[in-house]
Structure of Protein-glutamate methylesterase/protein-glutamine glutaminase:
Amino acid sequence: MNKIRVLCVDDSALMRQLMTEIINGFPDMEVVATAPDPLVARELIKKLNPAVLTLDVEMPRMDGLDFLEKLMRLRPMPVVMVSSLTGRGSEITLRALELGAIDFVTKPQSGLRDGMLAYSESIAEKIRTAARARLPKRQGGSAPAVLNVPLLSSEKLIAIGASTGGTEAIRHVLEPLPATSPALLITQHMPPGFTRSFAERLNKLCQITVKEAEDGERILPGHAYIAPGARHMELARSGANYQVRLHDGPPVNRHRPSVDVLFKSVAQYAGRNAVGVILTGMGNDGAAGLLAMRNAGAYTLAQDEASCVVFGMPREAIAMGGSNEVVPLHQMSQRMMTQISAGQALRI
């Protein structure tokens, strides 16, 4: 078996040691070298040709972002960022994903010993995913043109689910949407703290208002609601209005928030008034929920393999029969709006 060759870049000797112990503890991967900064890493990449790089966000001599930007331009390779849980750490990590990093892990917290096995498994899974992932293409140029969409009933809404590669995919879907867009509910697998930074980042880029969802708030057109990290988000009704419901139920498909939890609630309360979208991601979360939406009369879309960083979640949804249509990422916004505007006429 060919092991996944990993280079770990971190200015902390303790973190380099910890990552080495974790990665070398799995039979299918190995740390071929560690580097205290990007300048040393650059020479080791040339010499050792690793399959995956783990890269600290904040380092001396050269910032992790500067190094990542140069790396993706000159020698693209799969990178997993190692991020702190600070606000600054989450903002930098989101920028790293925009620059082409596949995924990120957070640095362990003090007192993690009880959860070290789960933490180790998470790192290994992200490295395996990165080794198989399709490197995202950098999108240059100006912001996309805003779509022209007629004013729609407040009954209409869109539900989106994503995981690995999803932060950028969601940005590409939301940026062209006009302020008259129907409401969107979005579950992206992401830890607490990062979802708020993610929502704030999108809010600055989009015509619609993007925010981290709050329990009990009314769902309004022209708004996108991001499920907070570590909380499930569901659609609920309060009289004639849609409402956000957040809860701390057990993980579903190993995730909280879970895409299935969102999609099944949308199937129940919105039915044919909804469009469901499943984007890039590892695993099968959202497949059963998308099928439930389709069975309830919603029109459902899955991102195509060629434009996914990881085709796992869309593949599972397609295989289960949950998607009406398979769509490239660059066409997703337009297809969503076409279907939400068409009502029942184009439903199959």
